[in-house]
Amino acid sequence: MFIMDRLAQANISLFSAQLNDLIMKAFVNFLEPVNKRKEESPGLLWRLIDEEWRSASYIESPFKDEMIAINIGVLEGIAFFKNFVYGTVHSYFLKNQKKWLDLSKPSQFIICGYQQATYPPWS
To answer: Rounded to whole angstroms, how far apart are CA atoms 57 and 36?
Structure first.
């Protein structure tokens, strides 16, 4: 039986204002604590961060657009994903995303389940 015990996720949206704008203050103030909680959780395997270990929101867009918000990560299964997104302070930001994201423009959320690679013990 094929078991999908890993999730790769990507979320690409447009900010409603630049990160240094007063409108974005609550979002920016909670980036570090929310990401710290995620990083300290056993279900996070990897997430995209900048050179200073900050949120991917601070990575320069290859499209040269400061308004693009990117979040990419690898998680240990759907249970961790659901618990983190809907069962922690992260849910507040999901419910209030219209305050910080431009929902009139297209955004992309991609999630892909896959099975952890297994290797023979001698490899």
So the answer is: 14
Decide if 41 contacts 80 (C-beta within 8 A). yes
Query: 117: which 2 tokens?
Result: 């690679």
CATH class of 6-114: alpha beta
The confidence band for 118, taking pLDDT boundaries of 50, 70 and 90, is low
CA 73 to chain centre: 6
Smallest Cα–Cα separation from 117: which of 9, 5, 41, 1? 5
The pLDDT of residue 120 is above 70 = no
- 120 versus 89: which is more confidently predicted? 89
Mean per-residue pLDDT over the chain, rounded:
85
Report DSSP state, residue 101: B
- Residue reference for tokens 């999630």: 111
Q: Which helix (H) or strand (E) holds 10?
A: strand 6-14
Q: Which amino acid, residue 104? A: S
